[in-house]
Known about the structure:
Helices cover 43% and strands 13% of the residues. It is α+β, with helices and mostly antiparallel strands. The strands form three sheets. Strands 2-3-4-11-5-6-7 form a seven-stranded mixed sheet. The protein has a three-stranded antiparallel sheet with strand order 9-8-10, with helices on one face. A two-stranded antiparallel ribbon has the order 1-12. Strand 2 (131-136) and strand 3 form a beta hairpin. The longest helix is centred in the N-terminal third of the chain and has 44 residues, at 2-45. The relative contact order is 0.15. The model is unreliable at 1-11, 29-51 and 332-343 (pLDDT under 50).
Amino acid sequence: LALSKEPSLERNGAVARKNSHSFRWLVGLVWFVMRGLLLGWSKRCFSSSSSCMFPSSFPATEYKRVLHGDLHRFCEQALVSSGAKKDHAVAVARVLVEADLRAVYSHGINRLKMYVDECKTGTVDVEAEPIVMKEKGPTAVVDGRNCLGAVCGEYSMKVAIDKAKEHGIGWVVANNSNHYGIAGHYAMMALPHGMIGMSWTNTSPIVVPTRAKNPALGTNPIALAAPTDSRDPFVLDMATSAVALGKVEVSNRKGEKLPLGWSVGTDGLPTDDAKAAVESSTTGKGGLMPLGGLEENSGYKGYGLAMLVEVLGGVLGDASFGRKIRTWQSPLLSREGGANEKDDGGANLGQAFIAIDPGVFMPGFPSRMDDFIDQMHGLPSADGLPQVMVPGEPELNARKEQEREGIRLHDSLIDNLNQVSEECGIPRIRCHA
Length: 433
C-alpha cells in the first residue's frame, strides 16, 4: 500500500507544482497586461495634448462644440434683448466667453441666465455708468452705481492701469458693484501694458467659516497676472473657498455627487449632496467650506484669506461685507446680516483692482519670471505623474485648444442656453459635434 501511494503523492505534488506555476504565470500575465494598459494610459493622459493637461472641469463626454465667436454673439444678443446697453453687453460677453475658453465653466456662459434675469427684473441698473467718486495720487474709489459687474470691473481696471502709467502703481477699490465673473480677466488686462495685475471681490455669503455652521463669507476670489519675457504669462485665479459655487451648480446639473470637503450641510458637517449645497446659497444654512476644508486640513487659512478680501475690498471701499451682503441671486438682503445703509437693492459688492509697473522697482522682471517658471518646470515629477505645471497653465492649454476647435459645453448647459434663447426671443446657439 505504501508503495502504491508514492506515485500518487508524486503525481499530486507535480499537479500542485504545475498549478502553482500556472497561477504565478497567470498573475504575471495579468500584471504585464495591466502594466501595459497603465503605461499606455499614462502616456495618453500625460501627453501635452491630453485632458490631464487641462483643468479638471474639462468635459470628456456629453458635450458639444460652440465657436467662441458664436457664443459671444449669443451672449450679447441675450443681454441686449433683456435691456442692457450694447457696450455693456459686449463687456459681459467678453468676460463670460473668456471664462469658458479657459474652461472655467463655473463663471462662463453658465452665468448668462443670472445676468439676463438681473437685467429684466431691474436688480441691476442697465442704464448706469460707473464713475470715479474719489481719487488721490495712485489711488481711486469707483462707484459702480449698481451697473453690471463686468462693466464696473473693466472700467475700474482701466483707471488702475492709467494710474500705474503715471505713478508706477494704481490701486482702485469699487463699491456698488455686482458679480463680475472671473477675477483673472481683470488681472490679465494689465498684461498688454507690461504690468502686473491683481483683482479680488467679495461675494454673497455662502462659505461657512471654520467651526461655524452658517455661511458668513463669499467665495471671495483672488487673481494675479504677471508678464513674462518668452514664457506664457503667469496667471493665478483662485477662490478662497474649497470650490466655486458654479462648480457645485454644474455638478448638481449633471447629477453628480460632490467630493467630501467641498460643502457642509445644515448641521455644519461635510456633505456630498450637490443639490443641498446649491440650496444652501439661498437658505443661509450650510454652505461651501473655506479653502483647505476642515480645520485639521488648514481650512482656517482659507477662512483667513476670505477675510483678507473683505478687509481690502468691502471694508476698505465702504461696500457691503460679510453677512451684510445680500443673499445670493436675491434682491433682498440677508435678514440675519442686516442691511448696509448705502444699499438700495443692489449687491453693493466691494472689489479691488491693482496695476503695478514692475520697472519702477527693478529692471528685468519679465526675464526673472521666465527663470522662476523654468525652475518649477525643471522639478522632477513624482513617479507616474506628468510635468510640474504653474498656475494658469491648464486654463491656457484649454484656451488654445478651444479657441481652435470650439468651446466644449456640456449637453445640460446647452439645454439651459436653449431656454435662454426662448425667453429672450433670439436664435438658438449654433452647436457642432
